[in-house]
Amino acid sequence: MKLRCAFFTFTLLFSFIPISNAQDFNRNENKWIKGWTNFTPNATNYPEAEEKLPNIIADDTYLTNDVVYLLSGDVYVTNGVTLTIQEGTIIRCDHINPASLIVTKGSKLIAAGSDAYPIVFTSNKASKSRASGDWGGIIVAGSGKVNSVSGNGVIKGGFNPQFSVYGGDDVDEQTAIIRYVRIEFPGNKSKRAENSNGLSLFGIGTASIIDHVMVSYSGQDSFNWSGGNNNMRNMVSFKAEDDDFQISEGFKGDLDYLMAVRHPYITSPKGSYALEIDGYNKDLGYLKPNAITDVTITNSIFVNLSDNSNYIHTTSAISASNSALVYLHNSKISGFLNVVKFDQSYTSLTVIEKAFKMDNSFFNIQGEGVEVDYKPSTGVLDVLKYNRFTQDFVSVDILFEDPQNKVAPKFQLKKAMNNYMVMQ
Predict the structure, then answer these.
(1) Residues 6+ positions from 191 with CB-CB distance below 8 Å
(2) What is the pLDDT of residues 337-352, one digit of tens each?
(3) Phi and psi (nearest 5°) for 360?
């Protein structure tokens, strides 16, 4: 890699890195994924559905875990009502008439599972026959801030127009409580090419609670945030075809403990990223420059399960466009072509340094590290200062302890941190 000449060993720079802030790569920081996750959902036998949900839910509704429900077609939660789902409830989602759950503006979803009894949305196909994109996904439309000229947006994808509006002025609104929830095999493309993501959150407010959510084998994005303001944590994207975490339209928040596990052979033809962050929607314009997308990501891991035979199929881990702001701290990136790719809106090193920060993190990549559109790109690698890295690309099974574990993959580095290099 061309990075090598600009770096020194960790031991030479030891005095420049505060020990109190250094990441302990040998610590098991992934304990939070144990118990409620499922990394082999195609092998899991779920009971058959017993009761079909109506396509319009216009009264407060409570789903209990002693019934297995069928979600078929577009199911709208409307009229300002609340759909509450008991912990341990299983919802089978139709693949013939691809299902989507749409929580409309002013309504609410309370899906509060637990570590021992997560709520599961999964394909209604039999085990070993499920596939990415069997059904649609879950959409929540809130009344929070959206950085568009109108302050609102319309959910694309051919949904019922009267139920597709999102956004407003209620920064602190609570549209959803989603905890300990698994969403398996969403992302259907045959019914609609847009917004059949695993979990799509449009304009949600600060009072919403989103944590411990796993999206597996999505045919589109696993997670999608459009506008809103919220702090979330403990989210897993497993082997998505498109992006793992897609963030746009002025969303602001702190995202803690994200895990994206990709495979080089599972990707979109246009390219897929662990994180795709967009400052604003060009079609909608933006209200003001200081309202563009701005996120802080900590304690996270973006991994492509690539090795020396297939790493050529990977992209950058992060795609940044339309002046989006992102700060990545105490995290790991491995198995990708580069750390980050910037579009033409980032016109100089000065602009990039104001928009992108990464520190106290680790990366293992194949390329130079940073992709930019402008030329010459002298000094652009400076944005990776104070992060540890491998001098040469290392295959996933050699680098990490047990990355292919089917119960709870482990992404602790096999070697101690002083075996890796640091940029001065």
Answers:
(1) 98, 136
(2) 999 999 999 999 999 9
(3) 50, 40
